[in-house]
Amino acid sequence: MVAVLQTRGLLSLPANPKTRALVQPNGLKHRFLSLKPQTLVGSSLSSNGFSKLNSFSPKVNGFGQNERNLFICKAEAAAASDGQQPVFGEAEVEKKPKILGIEVDTMKKILPLGLMFFCILFNYTILRDTKDVLVVTAKGSSAEIIPFLKTWVNLPMAIGFMLLYTKLSNVLSKQALFYTVILPFIAFFGAFGFVLYPLSNYIHPEAFADKLLSVLGPRFLGPLAIIRIWSFCLFYVMAELWGSVVVSVLFWGFANQITTIDEAKRFYPLFGLGANVALIFSGRTVKYFSNMRKNLGPGVDGWAISLKGMMSIVVLMGFAICGLYWWTNNFVPLPERSVKKKKKPKMGTMESLKFLVSSRYIRDLATLVVAYGISINLVEVTWKSKLKAQFPSPNEYSSFMGDFSTATGIATFIMMLLSQYIFDKYGWGVAAKITPTVLLLTGVGFFSLILFGGPIAPGLASLGMTPLLAAVYVGALQNIFSKSAKYSLFDPCKEMAYIPLDEDTKVKGKAAIDVVCNPLGKSGGALIQQFMILTFGSLANSTPYLGGVLLVIVLAWLGAAKSLDTQFTALRKEEELEKEMERAAAVKIPVVSENDGGNGSLTSDSSNSPSEASTPRNN
After folding, report:
1. Where is this region: Disordered (predicted)?
2. Residues 6+ apart with CB under 8 A from 95
3. Are 307 and 200 in contact (CB under 8 A)?
């Protein structure tokens, strides 16, 4: 293979070079017999008036006594420009096989990741819809239980999990850590459908809760409901943790481990398309089981039968996730990372927390997650209270949530198609700012309808709707648009931001941010609502102030996104530079020299190597 050197001003060869014969100096025969020449495999120099040489020695004898170095040529410079072939001994990069324009190695990553995301979000949609039905429609409970659950149960359990996960990450391999975390989730959801729920009438202390309620008064209905339906609350928390732990920590952490930044920008939004098809199908699944209860005879607990069916699907999907994870680890090659970033000392739990808090990059990421949690919670809890008022029965509530999940999947699918264009055209910074902007605009519309529902009631009546039903639909649209923007833009942006980090910061930073900051944001929103209600007397009276809080939170969110955009760009450039330096260090750098006669020859930039001869070859 002849590699043609493209000079383009880097080096100048004579237009009419003189052909020089090799003059054998004394002792050259001895050198040929005593030394084994090292050939520079796969390269030769082809130019007018020059014979082709199959190798070059560090110092070629017979081309002149006084040699002076002209240029140090980087071995991959000419190859990198215009896609030319490599020169001066650089190994030729073989073209990898492709399928539909995508390399096979990349395809082996994307397909299992997309299927894993499909299964995880299929489960999450079923669990998310089921947990709301359980705690909101249960006897002796209402939507008021949700802020207390998120603040006093979900947040402590999330913190406890983060501490345990940080400890386990220091002693277990990544694969063992994945299985250790996900298998208890699968076991619990299977046990809930077939053991805990059928025994709920026996294990729930309803009489004790009634006695406490009569003593403390109705204002403690929410906290006492946690005791009254403790197994349902445990299911609620485990379903919330599935979203934080399995989706954010396990899946995205694994995806960041086996993909590069360029692959992430191209495929993170795309394989989310398959995941949001899961929202559509899982929404239909929930609606099917909800409607199935209507066809059962009297005295039959239809909800128990529905739970068994849905939890069986969750368990099967969980084992499918484990199988896909095992296959990917065994058959997909890991990408090259910068070696320098992997050399990090192990840190204890408190050291890890101090390190994460001291990092501006991690603080900005945490601000994004907390701000989303507070913002969505300020609107979502109010919407769910309206939803229960409109659909009081579990059957109607669950059926509406199935339609809601399907609509969310369709909207997110469309947003996923647009997201790759947004990333390519406008970059990470603009994509990260779209979600807070959408949430702010739709939230203002929802609160405005609640505030001014009375004056517009006649107009709504002409459309066949009441202000309550209109609030339910507008709140549903607000949640659909906000969640579709989150799944298609916010989540990929957040996960891309982890890729340039070192492994220790990536693992522990994700555990701290995704497991703790996510419920912290939701709990923060719940605490704000509780404070507003106690201060202004009711949720309706506090609505204008909640809108003001929403504005402040979104502005802080946008500021953190702008700051993180600057840091992310710098880290990415630094990582690319380090990879470039590592590749350059692994390549033999030749030196172009010129002899007295003006003809160009090659020498190696290695002054300490012994002189070796090269045998010319006639072609």
Report:
1. 588-619
2. none
3. no
The CA distance from 403 to 48, in Å, is 74
How close are the terminal C-alpha atoms of the chain, in Å?
Answer: 13
Residue type, 519: P
Name the one residue in this structure whose structure tokens are 């709301």: 132
Burial of 311 (0-12, 13-18, 19+ CB in 10 A): buried
pLDDT surpasses 90 at 617:
no
Residues 6+ apart with CB under 8 A from 373: 517, 518, 519, 520, 521, 522, 523, 524, 525
The reported pLDDT for the residue numbered 287 is 84
For residue 311, which of 126, 117, 122 has the smallest C-alpha distance?
Answer: 126
Predicted pLDDT of residue 356: 63
Give 578-611 pLDDT, tens digit per residue. 777 877 777 655 545 445 444 544 444 444 444 4
Return the closest-CA partner of residue 257 out of 117, 113, 96, 101. Answer: 113
- DSSP designation for 271: H
How are beta strands 98-99 and 68-72 bridged, if at all?
unpaired
- How many Cα atoms within 13 Å fall on the side-chain side of residue 136? 28
Q: What is the pLDDT of residue 48?
A: 41
What strands, in cross-sheet order, belong to the sheet with 600-604?
68-72, 590-594, 600-604
